[in-house]
Amino acid sequence: MAQALAFEPVRLPPEAEALRADVRAFVADTLAPDFLRNSDFGSGHDAEFSRALGARGWIGMTWPERYGGGGRSFFERYVVTEELLAAGAPVEAHWIADRQSGPVMLRYGTEAQREFFLPRIIRGECFFSIGMSEPDSGSDLASVRTTASQVQGGWLLNGTKLWTSGAHRNHYMITLVRTEPQGDNRHAGLSQFIVDLKNSDGLTVRPIANMAGDRDFNEVVFEDCFVPDEHLLGTAGNGWEQVTSELGYERSGPERFLSSFRLLVELIRAVGPDPEPAQAAAIGRLAGHLVTLRNMSISVAGMLQSNHNPVVEAALVKELGNNFEKELPEVVRLVAPANAGRLFRLTLEDTLLHAPSFSLRGGTREILRGMIARGLGLR
Ligand SMILES: Cc1cc2nc3c(=O)[nH]c(=O)nc-3n(C[C@H](O)[C@H](O)[C@H](O)COP(=O)(O)OP(=O)(O)OC[C@H]3O[C@@H](n4cnc5c(N)ncnc54)[C@H](O)[C@@H]3O)c2cc1C
User: Fold this and answer.
1) Which residue's alpha carbon is nearest to atom 25 within ligand 1?
2) Is any ligand 1 atom within 6 A of the Cβ of residue 251?
3) Ligand 1 and 361: CB distance under 6 A
4) Residue 263 has what DSSP assignment?
5) Is the CB of residue 139 below 6 angstroms from any atom belonging to ligand 1?
6) What is the distance in A from the centroid of ligand 1 to the CA of 67?
7) CA 73 to CA 369: how far, in whole Å?
8) What is the DSSP string of 138-205?
9) Rounded distance, CA 279 to CA 332, Å?
10) Are residues 103 and 207 in the same domain?
């Protein structure tokens, strides 16, 4: 029988709302007013900006204070994240480390790993990549073929990772590999390692250009690449449980419906106070969808704050959110004013070029729909 999913209405508490003005003032002081902004978390790698955010205490906000974290709530983190994305701030450098590498280390890492990595991430000095996908393993992640075999003092990695965003710029990558041959249980025998992308022998990072001409993702090849025992993350063989929890963090934030947001802002600016009826209808419809998605997304933040693991709810918000952020440039294109200015045109072009990737990264829509169906008891 089908089960319902509940999205309890959540109001952001005053201490979270209070941060909004601080972030807006910081962005206004730090970024040039007319620079092309898109609100896609995956574009805009700016180490200096990340260090400035770190100095403000806006990285690792929910992490324990003993590592330099803010000890703050998921709601406070939500407001800072939302404001940075809405402003089109260049958040890519620290994004993965803040969103998922740090949390996965807090949950599964050794004390030595936490003490070494977390303060550096929090200061905006240490950036991470995700090493999950491979040439023949994307949706079916348990089929990864990269191996790690144990040697004196560590492990030798062999295989290839693909679509590794930022690996040519970032310092480390948490990677999923097979440490035991695959048996009947495909999820057994997988492990995670923290790989040093800057100082490892036997590791090659090859950038891949995307259709927009950017060089954001890479192929990462391991040929007898040595990783010391201290960089095994969690328990050998427990990689599936760990990577699944990491994907929960990866799918739960406002970045899964805000990627095209700047284009809506530019449309409203371009049509001015007296829109045509079709323009007013389009803006009203998009704003209605946006508000609903935001309410659902804040409800997911509430689940995280209450220590729940909202895997299915996060998948649902990501699936609906990806629909919205892909539909937005198509709707805007139809009602765009003929005399719209340069910034509007650039934002539209940029969003249209990147939109195909929104529903692929972080898990494709077919995979998410399968998870949602299972969560609803329909499969
Ligand atoms: C911009 C971008 C950045 C990325 N960054 C990273 C990164 O940093 N690190 C990383 O590890 N990966 C990254 N990826 C890879 C991403 O996670 C994969 O592209 C995604 O998981 C899909 O895997 P695939 O490309 O191998 O496609 P496939 O898994 O081969 O899927 C191809 C198509 O088949 C469908 N399909 C597959 N299996 C099923 C099924 N069982 N039922 C129904 N339909 C199915 C899929 O939905 C899809 O439409 C990135 C991708 C993009 C686009």
Assistant:
1) 138
2) no
3) yes
4) H
5) yes
6) 34
7) 30
8) SSSGGG---EEEEETTEEEEEEEEES-TTTTT-SEEEEEEESS---SSTTTTEEEEEEESSS-TTEEE
9) 8
10) no
Assign residue 175 the CATH number of its domain.
2.40.110.10
Number of domains within the chain? 3
Tens digits of per-residue pLDDT, 248-275?
888 889 999 999 999 999 999 999 999 9
List the structure tokens of 324: 């919205």
**Final residue belonging to a domain, choices 227, 242, 257:** 242
HEC-encoded secondary structure of 235-288: CCCEHHHHHHHHHHHHHCCHHHCCCCHHHHHHHHHHHCCCCCHHHHHHHHHHHH
| Domain co-membership, 104 together with 170 | no
In a shared domain, residues 74 and 136: no
Whole domain around residue 148: which residue ranges? 130-242
Q: Nearest C-alpha to atom 3 of ligand 1 is from which residue? A: 361
Give the pLDDT confidence of 158-192 residue by residue, as tens digits.
999 999 999 999 999 999 999 999 999 999 999 99
Domain termination site, one of 100, 127, 154:
127
- 275 and 339 part of one domain: yes
Instruction: Identify whether the C-beta of residue 177 lies closer than 8 Å to the C-beta of residue 224.
Output: no
| Helix or strand (DSSP H, E) at 375 | helix 365-375
> Do 180 and 303 have their domain in common?
no
* CATH number of domain containing 310: 1.20.140.10
Q: How far apart are CA 335 and CA 192, in angstroms?
A: 48
